Every structure is written in structure tokens, then in C-alpha cells.
């Protein structure tokens, strides 16, 4: 969990740096805006488990801009966390970071051009920068020292000057850390150390700074079939695939609108996560059990309709229907779903 926090801090720092290099324009150093060069940027974090084993990881998807007024925004797609171990990636995404509810971290900075006026002459300087980091529904404001290096009038790099320590207590992630430790049977430090190196490039003329917003998109059957052939070569074996589905099942069951077979909007991110896992693991079959809540039709019709609604949604995202078994699972009880309400459970059959 600590890893994720550090990552968010890095993004914020990166945004602040780009504003410094605007020395070439005397009137407005932010003219035309700046965009993060993803190919020349990285955000890494070190976590500690069992008290002495350090692991270095990173986030693959970053985006950032600085607009003409000096307002900087950096976004990190938390689903892009890369630990170099597939099941560890899955656990961090869904058990710790809860990316199906909180897919991104955001860092915002209002840049003071006055503190960077001499960057053109000195080329490199250390600047304290205040930033606001939003993640997992929480928000913190901090100040860190950043090192700025002016590559040329249209490119600037920024990196952390000192180690950055981020803890789970900052973002209400203690429960997620506990789930992570339980699933991996290992003790994990609640603190992480972050490091980063970002490069920003001034936008070309006639182009406004735009920040791409990474989102999970529905995948057509044809597109999914084409992608499966590629993913099969690098994706995990069947046991790891089963662990993916099990991990998702521990998060929550799929929720429905009352007295309806319409999937609730707040369950769609979970459905997308199931679809992604099943498309990447084409050998896994699942059973979908529709459940009804107190006061709803208990004849089995509504429960079956709910199971079928999930089956259709997964199929539309590239999961073969032959891998999806549906049935009426009965009524929601304290043992099947303590929270209550109309639900459906997805269980791996392999």
C-alpha cells in the first residue's frame, strides 16, 4: 500500500518541475502548456516485507500537463502497477488499492513562476514545492524538495531530491494492507520509499495542453479474440488465473438495482475487472449465482435473470458464453452477503 502512496507523491512533484523551464518565453513561461513525456519518465517505489526484503516496483501509465496559468495536474493509473509478479499485481490492484473503486491518483500543484526565474541561467536548482495528492478518497497536502534540470527551452526534467516516505495512514489504507498481508501470508511495512524522474515537453504551437484520462473500455468479441492470442504467451498459468478470480471474489459481490436485474453502476468497475481477468485467462470457467434480497421475488426468476445479466455483460466484453454457467443461488443471507441487497456471486469452477 505504501508503494501506491509514494507513486502519487511522485506525480505531484513531476508537475511542478515542468513549469520551471519556460525561461525562453519572457511574457508567459507557461505559454502553450507542457505535457509529460511518458517515454522519458518513471515512477518507482520500494516496499519492505518480512522486515528485511526490499522490492522495487513501478507504475507504467502516467499522464500530466501544466496549463498556461501554471496549474499542474498529474494522474497515475493505479491498475498499471508493475511488481514483476502477476498475482502480486492483482492483489495490489484489488485488495490494497481497490482500483475498481479508486482507479487513479491525482496530484495538483499551483506553480509560482517567480521561484524559477533564474533556471535559464543556473540550469539546475533545488526548489521546495507544495502539492496536493488525492488517492483512495483521501487528500493530503505536503511540501517536498525537487531537483529541476533545464534540458533546453522546450524540455525540463524533474526528480526527487530526498527520499519520499509515504504511509498507509495518510490514505485510510490500513484495511487494504491487512487484506494484502492475509492473502500473501506475509508482513508488509506500512511505509514505502518513492523515487521518480519526470520529463516535460512544451506543447507545439496551436496545441493546448490536454491530459488523457485512462479508462477501462468495453472490449468487443472480435477485439478480445485477437488479444487473447497475444496475452496467452505472457500471461500466468491456470493456478494464477484462478487466484485472480478468487481475489476479485473477496472484494465484493456484484450488486443490482432493487427489484431489478439491472447491474448497479457502482458494480460496473468490478464487472470490468472480472472481464479483464477472464479474457486474459481463457482456460478458466466460472459459475454465476444470482441472489435476491428480503422483499424481492424468491421464485428464482429474478435471481436467474441477475445471473444471466452478468453473463451477457461478460460475453459482450469478450468472454465466451461456454465458460459462463448461470443459476439461481437463492436468497441473500448473512452468510452469503452480510450487507444484504440483491447480489450475484462469481465463482471459478476449475
Question: What would you say this structure looks like, in words?
Answer:
With 350 residues, the protein is an alpha+beta fold. The chain has 2 domains: 2-202, Beta Barrel (Lipocalin); 221-348, OmpA-like domain (60s Ribosomal Protein L30, Chain: A, 2-Layer Sandwich). The protein has helices at 2-16, 86-96, 119-122, 174-184, 221-231, 238-251, 268-280, 301-316; strands spanning 34-36, 42-49, 53-59, 62-66, 71-77, 81-82, 104-110, 124-135, 138-152, 155-160, 164-167, 191-202, 254-255, 286-292, 324-331, 343-348. The strands form 2 sheets. An 8-stranded antiparallel beta barrel has the order 1-4-5-7-8-9-10-12. A 4-stranded mixed beta sheet has the order 13-16-14-15. Helix 2 runs antiparallel to helix 4, helix 6 runs antiparallel to helix 7 (268-280) and helix 7 packs across helix 8. The longest helix has 16 residues, at 301-316.
CATH superfamily of the largest domain: Lipid/polyisoprenoid-binding, YceI-like
Reported by name, the CATH topology of the largest domain is Lipocalin
Strand order of the largest sheet: 1-4-5-7-8-9-10-12
- Beta-strand portion reads 25-35%
Second CATH tier, the architecture of the largest domain: Beta Barrel
The structural domain count equals 2
Q: What overall form do the CA principal axes indicate?
A: elongated
Figure out the total of helices: 8
Into which percent range does the helicity of residues fall?
25-40%
Calculate Rg over CA atoms. 23 Å
Low confidence ranges: 1-26, 213-233, 334-340
Task: Encode the helix/strand succession as letters.
Answer: HEEEEEEHEHEEEEHEHHEHEHEE
Amino- and carboxy-terminal Cα gap: 30 Å
